[in-house]
Protein: Alpha-glucuronidase
Organism: Plebeiibacterium marinum
Amino acid sequence: MRFIHSVLFLGFISMHLFAENGHQLWLRSGSGKSINVVCNKKSSTLNIAEEELKSGWKGQAGKNIYLIIKRDDLIKGDGFILSDNKIQANTDLGILYGVYELLRRQNVGDDIKFDVCNPAYEYRVLNHWDNLDGTIERGYAGNSIFWRDGEDAFVVKEEDKVLWQEYARANASIGINGTVLNNVNASPEMLTHNVLNRVKAIADILRPYGIKTYLSIKFSSPSMIGGLETSDPFDSKVNEWWNEKAKEIYQLIPDFGGFLVKANSEGQPGPQDYGRTHADGANMLADAVKPYGGVIMWRAFVYQTSEEDRAKQAYNEFMPLDGQFRDNVIIQVKNGPIDFQPREPFSPLFGAMKSSSIMPEIQITQEYLGQGIHLVFLAPMWEEFLKSDTYRKGKGSTIANCTDGSLITQKYTAIAGVSNIGLDANWCGHLFAQANWYAFGRLAWNNSLTSEQIANEWLIQTFKNTDQKSAIFNPDWELNFLKPIKQMMLDSREAAVNYMMPLGLHHIFAAEEHYGPGPWWAPKGIRKDWTPPYYHQADSVGIGFNRTATGSNGVCQYSENVSLLFSNTITCPEMYLLWFHHLSWTYKMKSGRTLWDELCYRYDSGVKQVRHFQTVWDKVQPYVDFQRFFHVQRKLREQSRNAQLWKDACLLYFQQYSHLPIPYDIERPVHELDVIIKEDLERH
Ligand code: GCV
């Protein structure tokens, strides 16, 4: 009997130890070692800080740690000073961030010594593209954690609160301090009574963790839900409506962050509908939230007013308005000039607008990078972007410097990431997509971190010591797990670029879901700049979009050095070659190969890389709990099949124009182009 009991007990323990659905993210419980926390103030945020420290402490047992709120000129905003036995900050939130940093260092094994840690950006904001009915635009991890359809849509349940609190904690642990709760393609209903009450309930939970709530608004709300005849920003009744709406919101949520606006973009209404400018629209809203300290994040993702090269349109519309925006307007600019492609050069707006606050918008959800299926660690892409040199003030004018206030003074500094979070147990659909959420927060706090550091931190916190099969029992964990998996993460973005759209190719996706390959996709009646042939321009001569002076002249929007660099095929980085140039199939690449051959090798190497990732992952099975292991293994298998399809589809399609053989040392396509296209057209 006793024996049976022990077996059952052991069975239970191992089930428990190995049941890993990834819900805990990178936040795993501590060692249970005691610690004395001494704090000179009380608040809900400080309580959290104290609790976190007590439960996560991995240092010397019985140690005294002092949490001290005391002004110091070295500390900026919610920054802090860390030392061996003390965290000092100007604000309660600074203390909480200091605690998370201390625990992170303990987990990762980094030194805990005197260090002044200040945030790179003041506003570090997640943008949820969540709809009121619970669906998420470009979401791949289930429905919204904030909104649902049905009779209980506005009931705040206990489980909602638990989830929102977990969400807040995860964000605070990586320094995120703002969240936009709904899609930029906003419903006007967002500003109605029931919805605002739910926003208040969410805000109340997020507040102690230092996270402010924001809403995306529909510009035409005054006429759609306010009973007004117009939403013209020059109409006094419209102004009054927004002022009253702001008042109502701030009465419910005194620390409400402000509004995010997508206007006159992809069919959304905006001030141009009334003959007004983006500045007119943004300023009206800015005036409404100004008395309460709110900001307006006004998106520059626009391309609907002219026939110009889409990549040029945001710059053309916004540059003339520089200097016309109120000081509480921040212009939110996507990292690249088109739309979150696997690789884009930086948007020429960065560093160019001198009298406006500009914030980068990057996409954490993998709309164009394999969605919930592909393992693609995005930090290398963001690092590449942040380190891009705009040359606006000479060499070294990186995007990071131009946007964080260190080179160009801005009233506000901010960065936004389009969230990849949903109701899935592991939050992000793909376990490794959690690393992208993590990376966004870490880079928003410190925009000079390397992808390698971020991957290292995430892997250790997510996988080390999480079950009996891992580090404690495997002294070789670092060699056998950390090293190869980190390398896989670091290579994963380049692999995706290779099998999807190498050498500067862009937007050659199937239809509007942006998942598979579709360089042929061009249904009649659809906007040209939504179709792949507009972007790849393949013909019998060659391939690529000519954005030099002999083409759309997109290069002229960059500063002189950059423009010269991109204009010349010799100096243009090969990764952007076909973004800026239309080149013949036999153009000689730096490798000595023809462009066609190089394209073939790139596609092939992308496939090989993913096949290699499968081996790398299979080898670490002894170090990972079964649930997470099989989850990733299955996803990698699908990614491999997809990569093969991308390669075959693109090479066979482009071969119709190049009329050249696929180099014979490359594995032959295994799909038929006509079948791929037929199936694709049937699906769409
Ligand atoms: C929210 C792309 C996406 C859209 C998205 C849009 C935007 O076009 O495909 O789903 O809309 O960008 O950023 O506004």
